[in-house]
Amino acid sequence: MRTGIALGSNLANRRAYLDSAREQILRIPRSRAPFLFSSLYETDPVGCEPGAQKFLNAAMELEYAGEPQDLLSELRKIEESLGRDPDHARNASRTVDLDLLYFGDRTIDQEELQLPHPRSHLRRFVLAPLADIRPELILPGQTDCVQSLLENLTDNSAVVRVADEW
Fold it and tell me: Among residues 69, 89, 145, 149, which one has the fewest Cβ atoms lying within 10 Å of its Cβ?
């Protein structure tokens, strides 16, 4: 199943955290090529504590031959391995944040997992990287493609491309 993952970090060596997370994601059992990677973006923090540092954000897509709950569990293990406390406060600064954006056309509404990610279509820091790799994608529950959602977004937060490849 084609699966999208958002990556973000706003503490310490942000790039190193994202590089490590990407490498660990590539080693997740049942993850398969082709792998797609967005550019790397520096973005304003949204909903974080006052004085929060800017984020580095990216998106990737892979083929996953398992259940979305299993993949989410693997992503949480990666976050913990990179210093994120499992009881981390929502929207607080973090070493790494890995969000499951979509899992094919599946929709799930559970306490631990919502697919597609419930705010992905509203966030410039998610849509800009996602448009790099899947501009034509229509997320479940949406009628417009990712590129159109990005172009029509009212969120004016700063999203600046800082690296084409990472």
Answer: 89
